[in-house]
Amino acid sequence: MLNLIETEEKFLDPELTIEKLAVSYNIDSKTLSNLIRKKHDLNFNGYINKLRIDFFLKLIRNGEHNKLTIFAIAEKSGFKSKSTFNRVFKEYYNQTPKEYISENIKY
């Protein structure tokens, strides 16, 4: 089931909640939460944010930063708040998205 979340890219919905996702898979939210925690050792928000950051990096590697602003790409990745995106990105990479791009992405 968690593979479906990733392949169907449900994490791109900025209004996604665990309840909404559980209903779409016809299970209760507690069961879904336990599955996520067991497989990824993350809570629901951490899991969704990780998928969003990975998607953001995929877009960056495909050159989207040459066409769109960093936040526009973050929005395409499911983030609805610039501050949340920046905070989550920095938690994973210990640098801002702009710093990461300038140091790791070839133009």
Layout of secondary structure:
Elements: H1 2-7, H2 18-24, H3 29-40, H4 44-61, H5 70-76, H6 82-93, H7 97-104
Helix pairs in contact: 2-3
Q: Would you tell me the overall average pLDDT?
A: 95
Structural class: mainly alpha
Tell me about the largest β-sheet: none
Shape: elongated
Fraction in beta strands: under 5%
Q: Which radius of gyration do the C-alpha atoms yield? A: 14 Å
Distance between the termini: 37 Å
Tally of individual helices: 7
Low-confidence stretches: none
- Work out the number of β strands: 0
The helix/strand series, from N terminus to C terminus, equals HHHHHHH
Helical proportion, percent range: 55-70%
Account of the protein in words:
The chain is an all-alpha fold and 107 residues long. It has 7 helices and no strands. It has helices spanning 2-7, 18-24, 29-40, 44-61, 70-76, 82-93, 97-104. Helix 2 packs across helix 3. The chain is elongated and about 45 Å long. The model has no long low-confidence stretch (mean pLDDT 95).
